Each structure stands twice: as structure tokens, then as C-alpha cells.
Amino acid sequence: KNEFENFINNKYHNAKRKNETNNVHINKSTITIKFSPQDKPITTEIIPEIKKAQRYIYIPVFIITHKALAQELINAHKRGVDVKLIIDAVSAKNKYSAHFILRQNNIDVKTENFAGKMHMKTILIDDKIAFLGSMNLTKSADLYNDENCIKIENPEIVKKLKSDFLYIWNKIPNKYLKKDPLAESPDSVGSCFDGIDNDFDGLTDSADNSCKIPNL
Predict the structure, then answer these.
(1) Are the CB atoms for 107 and 85 separated by under 8 Å?
(2) Separation of alpha carbons 28 and 164, rounded Å
(3) Which of 15, 79, 91, 134 falls between 20 and 30 A from 214, CA-CA?
């Protein structure tokens, strides 16, 4: 409510009144809510929890470009943590995407082949903690944008989110651990017949060169 009132009063970004966020206990959950840019959630909440991870870190996210976060994922992988990411096919074409360096460091990153539809912004850690909210994993989301980040500590919820992540993971062919399918192409399921400009280039379905099948 306080964050909403900031916007109603035309206060955005660094002009907002900082919320005093405390842990809230609801049934079996401990919930912490942070807002960018005042709280810097990636720096103050997400990275510290990644440093403590022991078993796994699973991340379905539209895009990851945050360099310090990417390095902490590499560090976690090196100490034996199972690190997996699913990213969006459109964002995979962003030259600043950190998935390139993550793959170079032997971290499993799959690019979805569902026509650019990975819009989760979630981090799951050790059947203990889930981060949800509006934030992509970028410097802008942490330091400049108006974003929300919800930290949930509840093993039951995290396990359900993990099950959903693994379902999507197993649906994506393993070849997309190494290559990035185009969001609008025969690689992306149904994308050449859905009437949607999936890659935002102004061309749809058969009008997009990526959907054209060469004459045999």
C-alpha cells in the first residue's frame, strides 16, 4: 500500500519514500518484501542467499545480465551446487545476456522453445527459499527501476515451484543447452502459426523469414 501511494503521489525511483520492510509470518511462511531501487534486492537479499546455497539453485527468468549475480552462480556451481536456469528465447539474443558466460563455466542454461514465453522472475534455493516478483535479474532492476521482490521461506511452496520448474526443464530439448532457438521459427513450438509477432520484429508467421521453409 505504501509503495502504491508513492506512485499515486508521482514519486518514482529514488524519489520514493522508503518502506520499512519487516518479516511477516503467515501460517507456515515467513515473507519479506523489498522494493527497488531503495532496497537493492539483488544486492541485499538474493546474492547473500545464493552464497549460502548448498544443494540447488533453479532460476526461470526472462533475462539475466547482472554480472555480480552471475559470478555468484558460477561460484556456487564450483562448490558443487546444482545450478540450472531457463531463459526466454527473445532475451537470449541480447548481447548483454549472462547466459553466455554461465554456459562457458559449465552451468546448465536452457533457452525455452515456446516462442519467447518465459516471463517468470523466480529463484529457488534448497527447498527453503523462493524469490518472486517483478524483477528481472539485471542491474537496472536492482538499482534504477521500480520493482518488487518477495522472499518466501516455506519448504512446501518452494518444492511446488521446483516441481513446476523441472516440468518445464524436461519439456525443453537438451539441444537448447547449447543453442538458442529463435522465438519465431520452426524451433519454437507453434510460433509460425499463432498470429503473434513473437520476436517483435514487425513480421508474423510466414511473413517472418525465420518461418520460411526453403524450397526442396
Answers:
(1) yes
(2) 21
(3) 91
How far apart CA 35 and CA 150 sit, in angstroms, is: 9
Provide CB contacts within 8 A for 97, sequence distance 6+: 63, 64, 65, 87, 91
**Predicted local confidence at residue 27, as pLDDT:** 87
| C-alpha cell of residue 123 | 529463484
Mean predicted confidence (pLDDT) in 108-134 = 95
In one-letter notation, the amino acid at residue 103 is R
C-alpha–C-alpha distance, residues 39 and 33, integer Å:
10
Give the rounded distance of the alpha carbon of 45 from its chain centre: 15
Structure confidence by residue, pLDDT tens digits, 74-108: 999 999 999 999 999 999 999 999 999 999 999 99
Name the E strands within 74-211: 82-87, 108-111, 123-125, 129-133, 147-153
Check: CB of residue 111 under 8 Å from CB of residue 99.
yes
